[in-house]
Amino acid sequence: MINGAHVIVYSRDAEADRAFLRDVLEWPHVDAGGGWLIFRLPPAEVAVHPADGPSHELYLMCSDLAATMEQLAARGVEFTAPVSEARWGRTTALRLPGGGEVGLYEPRHPTAHGG
């Protein structure tokens, strides 16, 4: 029935953010036409948290937050939040070239995607 998910990241500079995903994160992609890149995501999962109203967040997952931050920093990535330690994992956030932020997350719980 459902065979995938399509995540949309809105950006003030979509071309710069596409280049970031292509060149810095090195994600495989297809060109849907005219340079409109669509990226293959790593395995993913969805969690539903209680809230007062609709809201969505995007977190990229990694198995070693410190090592991933070191690799990304060497590629010029700016981190916008200190590492936060929680019972369920470690998080930070990184700046996209278009001005947005994306979370980066090392889970300390079983993952649904098996990674």
UniProtKB/TrEMBL annotation:
Keyword field contains Lyase: yes
Superkingdom per UniProt: Bacteria
Any one GO molecular function term: lyase activity
Name this protein carries in UniProt: Enzyme related to lactoylglutathione lyase
Keywords: Lyase
VOC domain location: 3-107
Source organism per UniProt: Kitasatospora paracochleata
InterPro entries: Glyas_Bleomycin-R_OHBP_Dase, VOC_core
Listed PROSITE patterns: VOC
Gene3D superfamilies to which the protein is assigned, alphabetical: 2,3-Dihydroxybiphenyl 1,2-Dioxygenase, domain 1
SUPFAM superfamilies to which the protein is assigned, alphabetical: Glyoxalase/Bleomycin resistance protein/Dihydroxybiphenyl dioxygenase (SSF54593)
